[in-house]
Amino acid sequence: MHKDGKNFQREHYWRLFVNSDSEENRAESFSSLYRLFVNELMAYGRGLGFETVSCEDGVHDVFCTLYSHRKRLKDVTNITAYLFKSFRNTLLNTYKQKAHISDMETTQIHFSTEVSVTDTLISEEQRQDVSKTVAKLLEGLTDRQREAIYLRYMHGMDYHDIALLMNMHPDSVRKIVYRAMTTLREKGKQLHNPLLSALITYWLATS
To answer: Which residues form the RNA polymerase sigma factor 70 region 4 type domain (predicted)?
Structure first.
């Protein structure tokens, strides 16, 4: 599904869930929101290094809290950022409690992610080739750079929302994204891959 279409669906079901006086409508919209977000939240949690079971528990806790606090959510403007932030905090709080570590130590958490190239104008073989190459290039970035790029380009979040999610200033997020993309562009040039160069140039232009 196209990203704009998915966002439209999310906003529609969110408004219905938050504002509807019908219990049936609330339940249906709540279930739809869960289906639209569960896979992305799970992927994000695994990217943060958490096991599948922990991610499943985290998603469950977030959506239980969502339902019980529905009346407090009318001012939420970015649904994706709100749920990702809630999910991240839930995972990290559980981790801190179990491991008895501080907030400072959780900022050092490792982040990794699978890269997906969805351009329909190139072949499946080319998409796989570019995805593998970008994934390898991302390994040379810092954890925070990888996470910021993931949120920026895989989920379309703006710098303000990423900053809230990662407990950073928006200007700092902008800088690490720009530096990361500059690094990727320089390394990408050395590979002489025109598709990869075009992809990175596009990302850099929109950063």
So the answer is: 134-184
Burial zone of 143 (CB within 10 Å; 0-12 exposed, 13-18 middle, 19+ buried)? middle
87 and 6, same structural domain?
yes
Rounded to 10 deg, the angle between the 124-138 and 194-205 helix axes is 60
Q: What predicted TM-score, i.e. pTM, was given to this entire model?
A: 0.75
Taking the chain (207 residues) in runs of 10, the rounded mean pLDDT of each run is 70 92 92 95 89 95 93 88 94 79 52 53 56 75 89 88 92 93 78 61 55
User: Cα 200 to chain center, whole Å?
Assistant: 19
CA angle, 27 then 28 then 34, to 5°: 90
Identify whether residues 46 and 6 lie together within a single domain.
Answer: yes
Expressed as residue numbers, the domain containing 44 is 2-99
Contact 162, 173 (CB under 8 A): yes
